[in-house]
Amino acid sequence: MGGKQGIISIKDKLLDLFKGDKKIKFIVAVGILGIILILLSDVFAPKKENKAATTASDYSLSQENQELEKQIYDMVATIEGVGKAKVIVTLENSAENIYAKEQKRNTDVTKDAQGGQDTKTTQKDSTEEKYIFVDDPDGGKQALLTTQKAPLVKGVVVVCEGGDDTTVRSRIIDAVTTALDIGSNRVCVTKMSNVNK
């Protein structure tokens, strides 16, 4: 009942304000309108996405794929006898960032003596890991990057005008396997047909 009386009392006070001076009526009306607008702006405001620091891991697999294809194409196109070329790279996974961690290890040893002769020892080990954070230029915090692993390459296909020449094919395979540190069984070089020229 106390809640109902409180609401009725607030309602009565507001009605009393509107009965009085016109200036007070205007101020109260503007205040109520302001509160309503604030509530509506929260409801209809677009949701902001959190902007994380841009790192190589933020790129999608297709973006990494395109960048790698361009790099391989630029290299292959400079090899003598290749001519026009197209390059397709298949990735197994995207780049991976490894961040610095702090480790805390705790060991609790408990000894219970029973009857003066038997001693029971209990050992409990626990490990706690936390990322190490550093200040970034924007004044925020970000995890300390220690290593960045390149994406794993599944295979590379090079289609080029000189793909039927064994010397050109050998040069392309040597260049691609060396650049990507993969085996020659993951590189396919073939001749471009006249239709695609």
TrEMBL record:
The chain crosses the membrane at residues 24-45. Residues 105-126 are annotated as: Disordered. Keywords: Membrane, Transmembrane, Transmembrane helix. This is Stage III sporulation protein AG. It comes from Acetanaerobacterium elongatum.
